[in-house]
Amino acid sequence: MTRIIGGLAGGARLHVPLRGTRPTSERVREALFGALDARSLCDGATVLDLFAGSGALGLEAASRGAETVVLVERDRAAAKVASRNAETVAKAGAARALVEQVAVSSYLQRSGRSFDLVFVDPPYDLPDAALTAVLVDLAPLLRHPATVVVERSRKAGPLEPPGDLALERTRDYGDTALHFLTTTGSFADHGG
Question: Which superkingdom, per the lineage (predicted)?
Fold first, then answer.
C-alpha cells in the first residue's frame, strides 16, 4: 500500500498503476520530504512531477502546502490512477493537482509555466543522454531559486547536471539515489 505520509492528506491511501511504474518507497519519500520540509520548500510552491506514475511525489507536496501541482505521465492507465489519487488528496483540503497525460519532453517544450520544485523520477533504465535532455528542457522553466530532485538507481552512478543546474548533494537509500539540484544557492547551506 502507498499512502501520503504527512500534511493535510496524511494517511490517505494512494492507488498504484498495475504495471509500468516503480513507486518511490515510503522510506525514501519520508527522507526526501523531511529534507524539503526543513527548508519549507513545499509551502506555497509551484510543483512539477515528471514521470509521475501514481503521482505520489507531487501529491505529497500538495498535502504539505504546495499551491500548484502538475503531474506529467505519458501512460494512459497511470495517468488515470494519478487523477484518482489527486481527487483523494484534494478532498482532504490540499491543492488539486493537474494531470497531464503526455510525454515529458512534449510537456516541457510546450509548457508556459515556471516551477519552484520539480521531481524527476524516470524509469531506472532511462539512458543518461535522455535524462540530460529532460534537464536541459526543464531548466528554462525553473524559477530562481528552484530545487530539482532526481531519483535514479544508485547503480547509475554520479549525475552530471547540465547548464544552470548544480548538484548540491546525493543521498542513497538502498538501491535508490536522490540527487538534489538547484539553480542558485547551496542546498547544504540551508540545513537540507
Answer: Bacteria
Q: What is the pLDDT of residues 8-36, one digit of tens each?
A: 999 999 999 877 677 788 899 999 999 99
Q: Work out how many domains the chain is built from and give that number.
A: 1
Q: How far apart are the first and last CA of the chain?
A: 28
Q: Which residues pair with 149 in a beta bridge?
A: 119, 180
Beta strands 46-50; 13-14: pairing state: unpaired
pLDDT tens-digit series, residues 86-141: 999 999 999 999 999 999 999 999 998 999 999 999 988 899 999 999 999 999 99
Q: Rounded to whole angstroms, how far apart are CA atoms 74 and 112?
A: 19
Is 33:64 a contact under the CB 8 Å cutoff? yes
What is the C-alpha to C-alpha distance for residues 69 and 8, in angstroms, rounded to an integer? 15
Q: What is the CATH number of the domain that holds 137?
A: 3.40.50.150
Give me the count of residues in the chain: 192
CB neighbours of 23 closer than 8 A, spacing ≥ 6? 2, 16, 53, 54, 56
